[in-house]
Amino acid sequence: MDRQPHILVVDDEDLVAFALSLALQDEGFRVTVCHDGREALIAECEDRSDLLLTDLRMPGMGGLELIREVRQRRPHARIIVMSGYSEGYPPEEGGRLTVLRKPFPMHTLVTTVKGMLDG
Q: Could you name the CATH architecture of 6-118?
Protein backbone atom coordinates (compact mmCIF):
# COMPACT_ATOMS: atom_id res chain seq x y z
CA MET A 1 0.00 0.00 0.00
CA ASP A 2 1.36 3.41 -0.95
CA ARG A 3 2.15 5.87 1.80
CA GLN A 4 -0.16 8.89 2.01
CA PRO A 5 1.74 12.11 1.28
CA HIS A 6 1.93 14.28 4.38
CA ILE A 7 0.95 17.96 4.08
CA LEU A 8 1.73 20.46 6.86
CA VAL A 9 -0.86 23.27 6.76
CA VAL A 10 0.09 26.45 8.63
CA ASP A 11 -2.53 29.20 8.92
CA ASP A 12 -3.58 31.24 11.94
CA GLU A 13 -7.22 31.43 10.79
CA ASP A 14 -9.04 28.38 12.16
CA LEU A 15 -11.71 28.24 9.45
CA VAL A 16 -9.18 28.55 6.64
CA ALA A 17 -6.97 25.85 8.15
CA PHE A 18 -9.99 23.58 8.64
CA ALA A 19 -11.22 24.05 5.05
CA LEU A 20 -7.75 23.42 3.61
CA SER A 21 -7.34 20.34 5.76
CA LEU A 22 -10.69 18.88 4.69
CA ALA A 23 -10.06 19.51 1.00
CA LEU A 24 -6.64 17.86 1.16
CA GLN A 25 -7.85 14.90 3.24
CA ASP A 26 -10.66 14.34 0.73
CA GLU A 27 -7.93 13.93 -1.91
CA GLY A 28 -6.16 11.26 0.15
CA PHE A 29 -3.47 13.35 1.83
CA ARG A 30 -2.49 13.04 5.47
CA VAL A 31 -2.69 16.53 6.98
CA THR A 32 -1.23 18.17 10.07
CA VAL A 33 -2.56 21.64 10.95
CA CYS A 34 -0.57 24.27 12.84
CA HIS A 35 -1.46 27.88 13.60
CA ASP A 36 1.96 29.57 13.61
CA GLY A 37 5.51 29.02 12.49
CA ARG A 38 6.89 27.85 15.82
CA GLU A 39 4.22 25.19 16.17
CA ALA A 40 4.93 24.13 12.58
CA LEU A 41 8.67 23.72 13.21
CA ILE A 42 7.94 21.44 16.16
CA ALA A 43 5.47 19.43 14.08
CA GLU A 44 7.99 19.22 11.22
CA CYS A 45 10.65 17.83 13.58
CA GLU A 46 8.25 15.24 14.97
CA ASP A 47 6.69 14.17 11.66
CA ARG A 48 8.43 15.44 8.53
CA SER A 49 6.06 16.64 5.81
CA ASP A 50 6.23 16.04 2.08
CA LEU A 51 4.93 19.57 1.45
CA LEU A 52 4.57 22.72 3.55
CA LEU A 53 1.49 24.89 2.86
CA THR A 54 1.85 28.15 4.76
CA ASP A 55 0.29 31.56 5.14
CA LEU A 56 2.71 34.49 5.33
CA ARG A 57 1.26 36.81 7.96
CA MET A 58 0.72 35.09 11.28
CA PRO A 59 1.33 36.14 14.87
CA GLY A 60 4.58 34.98 16.43
CA MET A 61 6.66 33.35 13.73
CA GLY A 62 5.30 34.24 10.29
CA GLY A 63 5.60 32.35 7.04
CA LEU A 64 8.80 33.94 5.75
CA GLU A 65 10.71 33.08 8.91
CA LEU A 66 9.22 29.57 8.86
CA ILE A 67 10.37 29.10 5.26
CA ARG A 68 13.90 30.25 6.14
CA GLU A 69 14.05 27.79 9.05
CA VAL A 70 12.71 24.91 6.97
CA ARG A 71 15.14 25.73 4.12
CA GLN A 72 18.08 25.60 6.57
CA ARG A 73 17.08 22.08 7.56
CA ARG A 74 15.82 20.87 4.18
CA PRO A 75 16.97 23.02 1.24
CA HIS A 76 14.81 21.12 -1.27
CA ALA A 77 11.57 21.07 0.75
CA ARG A 78 8.45 21.68 -1.33
CA ILE A 79 6.55 24.78 -0.17
CA ILE A 80 3.33 26.51 -1.19
CA VAL A 81 2.85 30.03 0.15
CA MET A 82 -0.69 31.40 0.55
CA SER A 83 -1.33 35.07 1.07
CA GLY A 84 -3.96 37.69 0.45
CA TYR A 85 -1.39 40.47 0.46
CA SER A 86 0.25 41.78 -2.66
CA GLU A 87 3.76 42.27 -1.32
CA GLY A 88 6.41 40.34 0.57
CA TYR A 89 6.28 37.09 -1.37
CA PRO A 90 9.40 34.96 -1.41
CA PRO A 91 10.77 34.31 -4.91
CA GLU A 92 9.15 31.34 -6.62
CA GLU A 93 11.52 28.43 -7.13
CA GLY A 94 10.40 26.22 -10.00
CA GLY A 95 9.05 23.03 -8.45
CA ARG A 96 10.16 23.83 -4.90
CA LEU A 97 8.22 26.97 -3.95
CA THR A 98 5.12 28.49 -5.45
CA VAL A 99 2.69 31.20 -4.37
CA LEU A 100 -1.11 31.02 -4.32
CA ARG A 101 -2.80 34.37 -3.86
CA LYS A 102 -5.88 34.27 -1.61
CA PRO A 103 -8.64 33.76 -2.35
CA PHE A 104 -8.10 30.75 -4.59
CA PRO A 105 -10.42 27.88 -5.55
CA MET A 106 -9.79 24.61 -3.72
CA HIS A 107 -9.33 22.77 -7.01
CA THR A 108 -6.40 25.12 -7.77
CA LEU A 109 -4.82 24.20 -4.43
CA VAL A 110 -5.30 20.47 -5.02
CA THR A 111 -3.89 20.69 -8.56
CA THR A 112 -0.88 22.69 -7.31
CA VAL A 113 -0.20 20.26 -4.45
CA LYS A 114 -0.40 17.22 -6.73
CA GLY A 115 1.82 18.87 -9.31
CA MET A 116 4.49 19.72 -6.75
CA LEU A 117 4.47 16.24 -5.24
CA ASP A 118 4.65 14.57 -8.64
CA GLY A 119 7.49 16.84 -9.79
A: 3-Layer(aba) Sandwich (3.40)
Q: Which amino acid is at 19?
A: A
pLDDT in tens, 12-49: 999 999 999 999 999 999 999 999 999 999 999 999 99
Q: Write down the domain spans for the chain.
A: 6-118
Contact criterion met (CB below 8 Å) for 116 and 98: yes
Strand ranges, E, within 1-119: 6-10, 30-34, 51-55, 79-83, 97-101
What span, in angstroms and rounded, lies between the C-alpha atoms of 77 and 82? Answer: 16
Q: How far apart are CA 25 and CA 83, in angstroms?
A: 21
CA quadruple 113, 103, 22, 59: dihedral, nearest 10 = 100
Q: 98-115, pLDDT tens digit by residue?
A: 999 989 999 999 999 999
CA-derived radius of gyration, the chain: 13
